[in-house]
Design brief:
Elements lengths: L5 H4 L4 H56 L3 H75 L13 H10 L1
């Protein structure tokens, strides 16, 4: 029994088989080309991703160097903001301190004025009291002078009880 080709077994004629092989060869070649292109693209992607990796690594290394040197732009901005905030805080504290000193000084001056007013009021009260005492004494002395009779030798003829009261007030 003659051996039939596998293509014949499948129900294809030899011409169909040749066409099919040609098509499948072309498809295989196209597949291989696509695979090569994909490999090239993957290689390109690998190259790109590797290049990006090294660029990022270089960028981060530069940023780290800038940080260590203290010249990184973001660090400088943050440092400047912190310095400005600190100087503002110092200014606020100084202003608050001066304000409190002014308040204490004003309160001190008010208390001095109140003390001076109290002292002046007390002086007036004491002065008025002493003047009233002096006037009372003066009146009593005048009254006693009228009530005492003097002799030519300077002695008294009679004493009146009002002088005893004056003596009591003076002591």
């Amino acid at each position: 029994m003659p051996i039939k080709s596998s293509h014949r077994l499948n129900g294809y004629s030899s011409r169909e088989c040749d066409n099919e092989e040609t098509v499948s060869c072309k498809e295989e070649e196209e597949d291989e080309e696509e695979e090569e292109e994909e490999d090239d693209e993957e290689d390109d992607e690998d190259d790109v991703s590797e290049r990006e990796y090294f660029e990022k690594l270089h960028n981060l290394t530069n940023q780290l160097r800038q940080l260590n040197e203290g010249v990184h732009p973001e660090l400088c901005k943050a440092s400047k903001r912190a310095e400005n905030w600190l100087s503002d805080q110092r200014l606020r504290i100084q202003i608050l301190h001066e304000h409190k000193i002014d308040e204490v000084h004003c309160q001190y001056e008010r208390e001095i004025k109140v003390c001076e007013q109290d002292c002046a009021t007390e002086k007036r009260r004491i002065r008025e009291y002493l003047m009233s005492l002096c006037e009372d004494l003066k009146k009593r002395l005048e009254h006693d002078k009228k009530s005492i009779e003097l002799t030519p030798t300077g002695g008294t003829l009679s004493d009146r009880p009002s002088s005893d009261l004056l003596f009591f007030l003076l002591t």
